[in-house]
Amino acid sequence: MRPLELAAAPLAAVPQLTVWLRRALPALALLACLALPGGALGATYNLLRARPLHAYLLTSAPDSLRDLRAHARSIGVVYPTYFDCAVPSGRVVGAEVPEVTAFARSRRIVVMPRFNCQDGATVHRILTSPALRAATLARLASIARSPAFQGLNLDFENDGAADRGAMTDFVAALASRLHAMHKKLSVVAAGVSVDDPRRSTGFYDPRALAALADTVFVMAWGAHWQGSAPGPIAPLGTALAIARYLASLPNASRFVLGAPMYGIDWAAGGGATRPAKAYQYSDIVALAHSVHAHVRRDPASAELTFDYTDAAGVAHQVWSMDAQSVASLLRIGRQHGLGTGLWRLGLEDQRLWSSSQVTSG
Fold this sequence. Notes:
- By secondary structure, the chain is α/β, with parallel strands linked by helices.
- It has helices spanning 19-23, 25-28, 40-50, 62-71, 98-106, 120-128, 130-144, 164-180, 206-212, 236-247, 281-290, 323-335, and strands at residues 53-57, 75-80, 83-85, 92-94, 110-111, 114-117, 151-156, 184-190, 215-219, 255-260, 262-267, 277-280, 296-297, 304-309, 315-320, 339-343.
- The chain has one domain (19-353): Alpha-Beta Barrel (TIM Barrel).
- 34% of the residues lie in helices and 21% in strands.
- The strands form two sheets. It has an eleven-stranded mixed sheet. Strands 12-11-15-14-13 form a five-stranded antiparallel sheet.
- Helix 6 (120-128) crosses helix 7 (130-144), helix 7 (130-144) runs parallel beside helix 8 and helix 10 (236-247) packs parallel to helix 12 (323-335).
């Protein structure tokens, strides 16, 4: 569910693009449908000022740190991906990037390093193997002990509903250790409008997680992904249903509704030979420009979409988030009393941060 985990990928699908395209990106404002409707930017400005954002940062992507530097005044909590699980051992690997921590702290941004583990089998072993579980809890507590960090962000994904109880127990144990040190715990969870323990999303128990953790970052996206058929990434109707459900739960104020800021390019036929590719917004705009696409906005999702045929004659369908679609998700979260957050800082639609909408945090 988390594309673009690595450094921002070049547009391999259109190798003829050159560096000047990215540099010229602000001037591309290429299609009328990309423009935000009147008042939308100002509304987002007020929304961001009212409650600074939670934001993920990839230390493997230079654009992520640049974004943090450029928009620090709008960010209240940053989750830098300092630590991962080794596959298949489950060992905690990685290290702090002092430059990131020092900058965030200089701007009074709360720093909660992310421990990222998205291999389902490895997550299962961490949760259920007594020795590995104990070692992981001890290592995470040791990391959180650093005076530079206010706590930790736990991002376990792709395990099954059978480990629901084990996940909750792990969060309870980790929260207990962190709270004893006066540190905070943030936990990632899939976005659902109904909690069904029988589904794969049943791995997360939102009610229990919100009772244990200080914040629960809910991924309000994934309706369509790199392994699915083409379609909107974060439909507004789905996000609204998720927000309403979260707002109905105890400890609702602990939930953070997360918005994605990328796009996906699906090739007809899909499969292993033509897997869908996720791109940052700037690359999506460059792609649309290079193939002379007719970009349109889908009214139901507020996302941008277009079709094109590549040099090999293969048809493609692209869906992408932009400033308007991201702002729409943030607005839904705020209207329901939830925190709001972003995946991830980088080459997103920079109009979200324009001086006309974000001047303080």
